[in-house]
């Protein structure tokens, strides 16, 4: 593979926050890649594959799979003889470092609910 192609791939990966380094020896390229899966030390062909897969994964929008309920915002209000609240749940996604919107929270809860209600096979 051409050095320029590899350089472009590495540049793209670094821009996406993937730690990687190219090691060149006698015209053979090897990659040192650190990503969420762990650290890879790979020769050209498999290194390129790992990088491409990782780049693809990072480009995908975060599904906030590991988001957690971290607290509440808002409170109770009293106005014109009526009590109301604007209490909202706060969910934080450690994967992308963002707080989820109410819409995203609702969607995530729906998904979690679907996941835990898998119908069991009857034992006979
Ligand atoms: Zn996320």
Overview of this protein structure:
The structure is a single chain. The chain has three helices and eight strands, in the order αβββαβββββα. With 124 residues, it is α+β, with helices and mostly antiparallel strands. The chain folds into two domains: 3-59; 68-116, no CATH class. It has a three-stranded antiparallel sheet with strand order 1-2-3, with helices on one face. It has a three-stranded antiparallel sheet with strand order 4-7-8, with no helix packed on it. A hairpin with a 2-residue loop joins β1 (19-25) and β2 (28-35). Zinc ion (ZN) binds next to loops.
Question: Which characteristics define this entry?
Answer:
single chain; alpha+beta; three-stranded antiparallel β-sheet; binds zinc ion
What's a quick, concise take on this entry?
35% of the residues lie in helices and 35% in strands.
